[in-house]
């Protein structure tokens, strides 16, 4: 499929239009729902969030409906335009498997959704880190999702490589997965983003207390992403494809503005603020990770998945009229052709 088959068929957002959107994420055992909109400044505003567990595909639709209803009550709005965030559990050869496509089609029909696109959770988290930290992410993303584990290497604004294991995740297996992501002649980033478990789970505690010296020269920074932020990450990726450039988050903009005003009002003549460490405001943006290699024999049940596209993941053509894009300052726009590679367009996948 040529590039022109992708460009011209993204979401459309007309200036001044007030519309709400649905991001629906699927892990092997959870449904995460996020309803969001653009405010008057074209910033992303989260209106509602909900999550539900499911035990099998038979009750997935029922639980999805319940999660959407809860989020819609918070948002005080119904939605139809939907982007699916998918764990690699639902992929086969870089695309939703035939069984997954059937599930998504049934979800869309039974819940009267207008499916627009899908995106991997890893690519969504890449967007989340860019938006929240205003830096190009470099990290290992570790998804511990029930009896499934996925780990991704994120560098240079894309998911470079992925590994999965279809069994109960253990620290040993996760270390082996991480070691197999190391590229020849390069080191792994010394930052780990974990999603799936909660802070009190045994697997997260064990990973936090593990000896990482075989992988890293310096102990890596380990962060945990909540299910809610995981759901929001798909919304931010969805927003980028609507706007054509990286979105801003309304709540973050307000928080940063409040901090600047506080520092401006409370600083003495030397720039110090009582009770505030101003230097820490920039610490997360300026630190550079240290890394080191790992050489171990992999387990037999570890599966490697390498991204097919050079810019994040997946692209599937969808029919439809050419869409208009919101105009913005040229300095804010990223390469739109590359941005479109973030998502896969669903109508063709679903057989529409």
CATH class of the largest domain: Alpha Beta
Which sequence of SSEs, written as H and E, runs from N to C? Answer: EEEHEEEHEHEEEHEHEHHHEHEH
Instruction: Return the average pLDDT rounded to an integer.
Output: 76
Mind telling me the C-alpha Rg?
Answer: 21 Å
For the secondary structure, the number of strands is 14
Provide the domain count. Answer: 2
What is the molecular shape?
globular
Known CATH architecture of the largest domain: 2-Layer Sandwich
The chain-level structural class is alpha/beta
Percent strand: 15-25%
The share of residues in helices is 25-40%
Quick overview of this protein structure:
The protein is α/β, with parallel strands linked by helices and 352 residues long.
How would you describe this structure to a colleague?
The chain has 352 residues and is of the alpha/beta class. It folds into two domains: 3-123 and 227-253 and 311-349, ATPase, nucleotide binding domain (Nucleotidyltransferase, domain 5, 2-Layer Sandwich); 128-226 and 293-304, ATPase, nucleotide binding domain (Nucleotidyltransferase, domain 5, 2-Layer Sandwich), CATH 3.30.420. 31% of the residues lie in helices and 24% in strands. The chain has ten helices and 14 strands. The protein has helices at 60-75, 98-110, 121-133, 171-180, 202-209, 227-243, 250-266, 280-286, 336-339, 346-349; strands spanning 20-26, 30-38, 44-53, 81-86, 91-92, 95-96, 114-120, 139-145, 148-155, 158-165, 191-195, 221-225, 302-306, 344-345. The strands form three sheets. Strands 3-2-1-4-7-14 form a six-stranded mixed beta sheet, sandwiched between helices. Strands 12-11-8-9-10-13 form a six-stranded mixed beta sheet. Strands 5-6 form a two-stranded antiparallel sheet. Strand 1 and strand 2 form a beta hairpin. The longest helix is centred in the C-terminal third of the chain and has 17 residues, at 227-243. The relative contact order is 0.18.
